[in-house]
C-alpha cells in the first residue's frame, strides 16, 4: 500500500521492522513510555472493557448526561467513518460508518490497533507522525492510504488523526480518527493529470510526460552487472523525428487537415513501436508528440544501435505510404535523428541535445532519411560552435595574420602580384586556414569586421613593398571579398578610405568574389562593383567555371579578371602518370579565348607541375598561381622575391 503523510517527521519511536500479526493472535509486550503499541504488541482486555464504559471520547468530564447522549448519537449516526483511539493506539470506540468501511461490526473493532486496521505502520515516516499525535507531541496528522473495501474493490482514503478535548486529567489522552473516501477525487486528479500529460490531437504522451519518463528511466536504469558482456548493460535509444513539409500542408489545406494527418502519423508510429517491441525483448517503448510536427520514440533498455536503426527504417517506410484523410490523399516524409548509448552517464539534456543535432544533420543531408549520431561529427560541430563564439573577439585581439601567395606571369615567370590569404592563430586549435572559419564569419556577420581588417592590412603591406622597392614594378594585391561584405557594409566607402590611408593606387588592388556571388548580381551589389571598377579597382571572378557560368553576365559585369578553378587545371597533369583530360584542356582553351575577346585577363589556379604551366602558357593563360611557384608565405619572403629571377619551377 502507498500513501503520503502530512506534517514534520518526528524523531521518536521505533521503525516498523516486522510484519503485522494476525488480528486473532495475542502477544505480550511492554510499550516504551506507555506509548502506542505496534501491530505486534499486546492488546490488553482492559481496552475492551474501558470502551464499554465510556462515551465517544471515553470520558464525561464537563458534560451533562444529556450532552453525552447527544454526542454519542451524533458519533454513531455520522456518515463519516470515525473512531476514538487511546494513547496506546487501541480503538476505544468506532462508529458504524467505520465498521462498514472496514467490513466488521463497530463493536468488534474496539481494542484493535488502529495502525493495523488502516495500514499506518508500514513505513517509518507515517508511523512516527501518527505516534507523535498519540503522545501529544503533534497537533494533527493526515495521510492518504489505499485500502481494500469489503466488496473487493480498492479505495483511496484520507486518514486524519487529531487530539480530543474533554477527557478528565486522570484519563490518558485520546485522539479522534476519521477516514474519508477520496477515491472520486483521486480519480479526477488522475484524469486531469492524464489530460495534462497527453496531447489532445494525437492522444500520445506530450512533452512533459516524455521528459518525466526519460528522467525516471535514466535515474533508475535496470540493474547493471559489470561482469556481463557490454551489450547486456543498460542502454537507451531515441528516434527523434520531424515531418518534412508539414507547414505547407497546414498552410494550404488548413489546420484541421493538419491535425488529422498528425493523428494518422501518431497511429503509424505507435504500430512501428509495438512491432519493434514484439521483435526485440527488452524495455518498453514510449511514443510521444513533443510539439508541432515533432515526435519521439523512446526505447528503454535497447539492444543496441541496430535495433534503433531498424526502427528508424520501419518508421520511414510506414510514413512513405500515402495517407487517406477525408477524401484527400496526402504523402509525407520525415527526417529522423537516431541516438543510442549506455544509460550510465547519460542525462536527459545531453540525450536530447544529441538527438536534436542528429535530426538537424538528417535534414541538412537531404531530408526523408535517418541519421545516426556521430561523436566525431558532433565534435566538429562543437569546434565550429567554439570558433563562432570567439571569432569576433579574435579580430579585436589581433589573432589573425596574412600570408601571401605569388601570382606569376605565365609568359616570363615574373612575379606580378600576390593574393592575401588570412590565417587564424587560434590559442586552442593552432593555425587555422580560411576554410575553417570564413564560412562561419559569413554566417554570423563577423566577415564584415574581419574583411575590413584584411583589406587594410593587405593594402598597407602592398604599399610597403612598393616603397621598399621603388625601382621595381609595383605588385598588385588581390583580396577576397565575401558577398555579405557588399550587402552589409559600404564596401565602396571602405575601399576608398583604406586606399587613401595607405596611399596605394586603386589599380594595384584586385578584389576577388566567387562566381556564385557575382553572377546574377543586381541592385546594390552590382552598383557597388561598378563604383569600384570606376574607381580603378580590378574585379576578379574567383573559381570561375564551377558556379552558374552564365556567360551572358560577363559582358554586363565590371569584371576584369577570370580566375579558372583548379579542378580544370588538374586535368593537365602529365608527370604523375595520369592521362590528361582532353575535355578539361578544351574547356580551358575556350574560356581563355572567350575572356580575351571580352578584354579580360585569365589566372589559372592550382598550378603544380611544369607540364601544366607549359600547357597553360601555350593556351594563352596570363598568370598562374600554385605550389609550382610558391605556397602562401610571410610578407618578408615575398619581399625577397621582388625583382628576382623568374619563379618558373
TrEMBL record:
Coiled-coil segments on the chain, per record: none
Biased amino acid composition, Low complexity: 7-23
PROSITE patterns associated with the record: EAL, GGDEF, PAC
EAL domain residues: 384-646
Protein origin, superkingdom: Bacteria
Chain spans, region Disordered: 1-64
Biased composition (Basic and acidic residues): 40-51
GGDEF domain: residues covered: 234-375
Residues in PAC domain copies: 141-194
Official protein name in the record: GGDEF domain-containing protein
Amino acid at each position: 500500500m502507498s500513501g503520503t503523510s502530512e506534517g514534520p517527521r518526528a524523531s521518536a519511536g521505533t521503525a516498523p521492522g516486522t510484519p503485522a500479526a494476525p488480528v486473532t493472535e495475542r502477544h505480550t509486550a511492554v510499550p516504551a513510555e506507555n506509548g502506542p503499541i505496534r501491530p505486534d504488541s499486546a492488546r490488553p482486555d482492559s481496552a475492551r472493557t474501558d470502551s464499554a464504559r465510556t462515551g465517544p471520547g471515553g470520558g464525561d468530564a464537563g458534560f451533562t448526561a444529556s450532552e453525552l447522549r447527544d454526542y454519542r448519537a451524533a458519533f454513531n449516526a455520522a456518515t463519516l467513518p470515525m473512531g476514538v483511539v487511546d494513547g496506546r493506539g487501541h480503538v476505544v470506540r468506532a462508529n458504524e460508518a467505520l465498521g462498514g468501511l472496514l467490513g466488521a461490526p463497530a463493536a468488534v473493532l474496539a481494542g484493535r490497533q488502529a495502525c493495523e486496521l488502516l495500514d499506518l505502520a508500514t513505513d517509518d515516516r507515517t508511523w512516527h507522525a501518527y505516534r507523535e499525535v498519540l503522545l501529544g507531541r503533534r497537533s494533527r496528522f493526515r495521510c492518504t492510504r489505499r485500502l481494500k473495501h469489503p466488496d473487493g474493490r480498492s479505495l483511496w482514503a484520507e486518514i486524519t488523526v487529531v487530539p480530543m478535548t474533554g477527557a478528565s486529567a486522570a484519563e490518558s489522552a485520546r485522539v479522534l480518527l476519521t477516514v474519508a473516501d477520496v477515491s472520486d477525487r483521486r480519480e479526477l486528479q488522475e484524469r486531469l493529470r492524464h489530460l495534462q500529460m497527453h496531447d489532445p490531437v494525437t492522444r500520445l504522451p506530450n512533452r512533459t510526460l516524455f521528459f518525466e519518463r526519460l528522467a525516471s528511466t535514466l535515474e533508475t536504469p535496470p540493474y547493471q552487472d559489470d561482469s556481463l558482456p557490454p551489450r547486456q548493460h543498460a542502454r537507451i535509444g531515441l528516434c527523434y523525428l520531424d515531418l518534412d513539409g508539414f507547414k505547407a500542408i497546414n498552410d494550404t489545406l488548413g489546420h484541421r487537415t493538419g491535425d488529422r494527418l498528425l493523428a494518422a502519423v501518431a497511429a503509424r508510429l505507435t504500430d512501428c513501436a509495438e512491432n519493434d517491441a514484439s521483435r526485440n525483448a527488452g524495455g518498453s517503448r514510449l511514443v510521444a508528440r513533443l510539439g508541432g510536427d515533432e515526435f519521439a520514440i523512446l526505447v528503454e533498455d535497447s539492444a543496441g544501435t541496430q535495433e534503433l536503426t531498424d526502427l528508424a527504417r520501419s518508421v520511414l517506410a510506414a510514413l512513405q505510404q500515402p495517407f487517406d484523410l477525408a477524401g484527400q490523399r496526402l504523402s509525407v516524409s520525415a527526417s529522423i535523428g537516431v541516438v543510442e548509448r549506455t544509460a550510465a552517464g547519460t542525462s536527459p539534456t545531453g540525450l536530447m541535445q544529441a538527438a536534436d543535432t542528429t535530426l538537424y544533420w538528417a535534414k541538412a543531408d537531404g531530408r526523408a532519411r535517418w541519421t545516426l549520431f556521430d561523436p566525431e561529427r558532433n565534435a566538429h560541430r562543437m569546434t565550429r560552435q567554439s570558433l563562432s563564439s570567439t571569432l569576433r573577439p579574435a579580430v579585436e585581439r589581433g589573432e589573425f595574420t596574412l600570408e601571401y601567395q605569388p601570382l606569376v606571369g605565365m609568359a616570363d615567370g615574373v612575379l606580378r602580384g600576390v593574393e592575401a590569404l588570412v590565417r587564424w592563430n587560434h590559442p586552442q586549435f593552432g593555425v587555422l586556414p580560411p576554410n575553417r572559419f570564413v564560412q562561419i564569419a559569413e554566417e554570423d556577420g563577423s566577415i564584415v569586421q574581419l574583411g575590413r581588417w584584411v583589406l587594410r592590412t593587405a593594402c598597407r603591406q602592398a604599399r610597403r613593398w612598393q616603397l621598399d622597392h621603388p625601382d621595381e614594378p609595383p605588385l598588385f594585391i588581390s583580396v577576397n571579398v565575401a558577398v555579405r561584405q557588399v550587402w552589409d557594409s559600404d564596401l565602396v566607402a571602405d575601399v576608398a578610405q583604406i586606399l587613401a590611408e595607405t596611399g596605394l593606387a586603386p589599380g594595384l588592388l584586385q578584389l576577388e568574389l566567387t562566381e556564385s556571388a557575382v553572377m546574377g548580381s543586381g541592385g546594390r551589389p552590382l552598383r557597388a562593383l561598378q563604383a569600384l571598377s570606376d574607381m580603378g579597382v580590378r574585379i576578379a571572378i574567383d573559381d570561375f567555371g564551377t558556379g552558374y557560368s552564365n556567360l551572358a553576365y560577363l559582358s554586363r559585369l565590371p569584371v576584369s579578371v577570370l580566375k579558372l578553378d583548379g579542378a580544370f587545371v588538374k586535368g593537365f597533369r602529365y608527370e604523375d602518370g595520369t592521362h590528361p583530360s582532353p575535355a578539361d584542356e578544351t574547356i580551358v582553351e575556350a574560356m581563355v579565348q572567350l575572356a580575351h575577346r571580352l578584354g579580360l585577363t585569365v589566372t589559372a589556379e592550382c598550378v603544380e607541375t611544369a607540364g601544366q604551366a607549359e600547357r597553360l602558357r601555350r593556351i594563352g593563360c596570363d598568370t598562374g598561381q600554385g605550389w609550382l611557384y610558391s605556397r602562401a608565405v610571410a610578407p618578408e619572403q615575398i619581399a625577397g622575391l621582388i625583382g628576382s629571377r623568374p619563379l618558373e619551377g
